[in-house]
Design a protein that fits this description.
This protein has a five-stranded parallel beta sheet with strand order 2-1-3-4-5, with helices on both faces. Helix 4 (93-102) links the parallel strand 4 (83-88) and strand 5 (106-109). It is of the alpha/beta class. It is globular, with a radius of gyration of 13 Å. The chain contains five helices and five strands.
């Protein structure tokens, strides 16, 4: 079992097909002390996860080819110790429910505030530390 992350050493992978969103989140999270990596899609995220385990994946729901739900399912099967937060600009109750059923820890609707993002990350960090 991997050691539990300390608050500033949490490893986060951000997955979004928007380069702008990736950069904004990477900067925010890096400035807050998190160790971050980015991927522009699910296939690239899987490539990162195969060689660089992370504590948390923050992924967009709607992306070309494979979706955030596909990534959640992959993570549950292949990296069950990794937590997931889904973010979406197209909120849907059915998707939110399915995300949680499939193993996502949280579901954020874009645009979200920094406070909302950090509160969701803190909930995940507390769960990991338990």
């Amino acid at each position: 079992m991997a050691p539990k992350p300390s608050p500033g050493k949490m490893r986060i992978l951000i997955v979004d097909d928007s380069a702008e969103t990736l950069e904004i989140l990477r900067r925010q999270l890096s400035a807050a002390g998190y160790v971050t990596s980015v991927a522009p899609g699910v296939a690239e995220a899987i490539g990162v996860l195969e060689f660089n385990p992370v504590d948390l994946v923050i992924t967009d729901m709607k992306m070309p080819r494979l979706t955030g739900l596909d990534l959640v399912r992959y993570i549950r099967e292949n990296a069950p110790e990794t937590e997931v937060i889904i973010m979406t600009a197209f909120p849907c109750i059915d998707n939110a429910v399915q995300s949680v059923k499939d193993g996502a820890e949280d579901y954020l609707t874009k645009p979200f505030t920094g406070d909302e993002l950090f509160a969701a990350i803190e909930r995940v960090r507390e769960k990991i530390l338990l």
